[in-house]
UniProtKB/TrEMBL annotation:
This is General secretion pathway protein I. GO terms for cellular component: plasma membrane; type II protein secretion system complex. Belongs to the GSP I family. The lineage of its organism: Bacteria, Pseudomonadati, Pseudomonadota, Gammaproteobacteria, Lysobacterales. Keywords: Cell inner membrane, Cell membrane, Membrane, Methylation, Transmembrane, Transmembrane helix. It is found in: Cell inner membrane. PROSITE patterns: PROKAR_NTER_METHYL.
Amino acid sequence: MTFPRTRQRGYTLIEVIVAFAILALALTLLLGSLSGAARQVRWSADAGRAALHAQSLLDQTGVGESLQPGQSSGEFEGGRYRWTLDVAPYADPSRPNAAAFEPGAPQLLRLALQVEWGDAGPRQRLRLQTLRLSVPDPSQAVMP
């Protein structure tokens, strides 16, 4: 008795290897894009926290004490965020330099805040500037 020959259908070894190579390439591209997205989410979270710390520091500056020109620095979250605040008299570019300054008059000050964060490599920076009106403390007025 003879059996009819049926042709076996299936995948060859080369076809299986090519399919796995295509699958590996697709997964590599997918995981690479997910890794980049995770890095951007982390950067966004760090920048958001830096902005919140900066806003908080600027809100507290000059409250309960008069502002004095100078520079101060410090850190948030145990050194993760470092800040530098520079307070200087504001020079209005539209006014002549020879404008008279009255000692007891309120003074416009420029506050420049820089917050840095990040580990090794290039650090991330946030720079903010604002103006504040500083009223001199009457108890420190010079008597003639």
